[in-house]
Amino acid sequence: MNPTPLLEASGARTATAQVHEAIKQRILDGVYRPLEFVREAAVAKELEVSRTPVREALRELVSEGWLEAIPHQGARVTEWTEKDAREVFELRLVLEPMAVGLACRHIDAATLAHLDDLASRMETLTETPLDGAGHSELASLNHEFHRLLIQASDNQRLAQILESVVRTSIIRRNFASYDRSALKRSMQHHREMLIAIGAGNAAWAENVMRAHLLAARVLHVSVDSTAASASPP
Amino acid sequence: MNPTPLLEASGARTATAQVHEAIKQRILDGVYRPLEFVREAAVAKELEVSRTPVREALRELVSEGWLEAIPHQGARVTEWTEKDAREVFELRLVLEPMAVGLACRHIDAATLAHLDDLASRMETLTETPLDGAGHSELASLNHEFHRLLIQASDNQRLAQILESVVRTSIIRRNFASYDRSALKRSMQHHREMLIAIGAGNAAWAENVMRAHLLAARVLHVSVDSTAASASPP
DNA sequence: ACTCTTACGATTGCATGCAATGTAAGAGAT
DNA sequence: ATCTCTTACATTGCATGCAATCGTAAGAGT
User: Fold this and answer.
1) Which residues of chain A (61-80) touch nucleic strand D at CB < 7 A?
2) I need a labelling partner for B100 at 20 to 30 A (CA). Which of A25, A154, B55, B163 fits?
3) How far apart are CA A160 and CA A167, in angstroms?
4) Residue partners of B14: CB distance under 8 A and separation at least 6
């Protein structure tokens, strides 16, 4: 076996890429808390690399919004405020419907089948009471469902933007706060979206997505009823 | 005076930040052409710094989409295709109306006055025939107008996304292809938006913005009439 | 007791040398 | 002539040492 297995697990990529992943994971896992500084030397020692790849990984993470850089002082985990949650939801509420709308034009049968499979597996999961592992698996499947849908929009920039916007906001947000009826409704939204997409009905799909997101919002944030909707294009 | 004034012009920031700006400017100016590799050693020698700040600047530019990294081979300027132009326009067509809609709720009198001033100066410019410098100034004012409007949306993420999406697409796109009537129409759009915002009428402002962008598109890209509009929220 | 100054420690910022890797040119065989 | 293997070179990837800078806490002065 390898004598230094600390980073080797993630394939044969560059050290910078591996450090990048490692730090991101620790942020997601809550090992590095908001406003806490991530010190170059400490990470380097812990992962058994020099400070150089750590520095480069930190700069990348700053560009992606995971950390904020303070000159001559270091990089610290970005804080997550109510305003951040609001901003992200405003964006998702516009961008995800846009994505499914575009997907209606571009999607192929194989992707649709894959989405169908994911929806089925989620439905199966929700038929029995869920433990912790079940919630985790459901969250994973759900994330994959949305990711695949967004990829099908055939707009690479949109996909990248949504990926970064959504992932930084998740931080292990799961379905623990969903009651039984909310869960079933969420699964039905997925189904309905696939039917709308299969029918090529963009408007239908977009509105189901908006309903899906708004329904989720009530469960996650203290809803401010700024329900002032935007106007039709 | 300083004996090495090559980079000192841009204030007293870090070398990395200055190299970052320098390379970005050269991409915008066309010194570095699409698909051309930007070599660490060459930039370092030219700007009289070591390879370290160059490496860090390159990584940042990759994260921002100006360059694409190829492992062990370097970073090259991203190519700009018709598909890229389409993607960016699809995004702007959704995000900029969203921004002005939000701005209707959050804007303050001072910002509105500033926007009014910018609109006036652009109108003055368009009253006489334009030379190259005039086009450049108009483009600059126009960019500032849109930037300020987007800031007024009070959604920091939206502003950052639009900034990156729009700026990488500009590459010195100016108003040279605008004829007289198109220019005047564009200026009127600005005015109308400000009036709509002043009246707090989000739907009005959003639709003017969409018209503004669609009118600009016909002048820039070979329009594909995929005028299939999205549905109302 | 409070404020301003100053010196120290910790941390990032930058330079440079060496190792790893990928590319391309050239020799040899078919 | 074409294909393959080898080898040398150019370039990035990484490690390490030193310099610049910032925060902090101790100490002098009011």
Assistant:
1) 71-73
2) A154
3) 11
4) A71, B53
Mean pLDDT, residues B37-57 = 95
Centroid of chain to Cα A230: 25
The parent domain of residue A106 ranges over 82-220
Q: State the total domains in chain B.
A: 2
Q: Give the mean pLDDT of B163-172.
A: 75
CB pairs under 8 A between A and B: 102
- Nearest-Cα residue of chain B relative to residue A105: B228
CB B59 within 7 Å, strand D: no
Q: For B189-201, what is each residue's pLDDT tens digit?
A: 999 999 999 999 9
> Does any CB of chain B come closer than 8 Å to the CB of residue A229?
yes
Are residues A190 and A96 part of one domain? Answer: yes
Question: In Å, how far is B227's CA from the nearest CA of chain A?
Answer: 11
Q: What is the pLDDT of residue B173?
A: 58
Q: Would you list the DSSP string of A27-87? A: HHTTSSPTT-EE-HHHHHHHHTS-HHHHHHHHHHHHHTTSEEEETTTEEEEPP--HHHHHH
The CATH number that applies at residue B145 is: 1.20.120.530
Query: Does one domain contain both B140 and B197?
Result: yes
Closest chain A residue to B72, measured at CA: A14
Q: How many CB atoms lie within 10 A of CB A93?
A: 18
Contact at 8 Å (CB) between B66 and B31?
no
End-to-end CA distance of chain A: 60
Q: Which residues contact B45 (CB under 8 A, 6 or more apart)?
A: none
User: What is the CA A30 to C1' D28 distance in angstroms?
Assistant: 45
Task: Give the residue, B176 or A31, on which the prediction is more confident.
Answer: A31
Residues of chain A contacting B165 with CB distance shorter than 8 Å = 157, 161
Residue A135: per-residue pLDDT: 80
Handedness of CA B220, B226, B227, B229 (dihedral sign): negative
Residue B41 has pLDDT above 80, yes or no: yes
Indicate whether B210 pLDDT > 60: yes
Contact (CB<8Å) A94/B95: yes
Pairwise CA distance, residues A170 & A80, whole Å = 11
Please write the tens of the pLDDT for every residue from B56-97.
999 999 988 899 999 889 999 999 888 998 999 999 999 999
Q: How confident is the model at residue B175 (pLDDT cuts 50, 70, 90)?
A: low
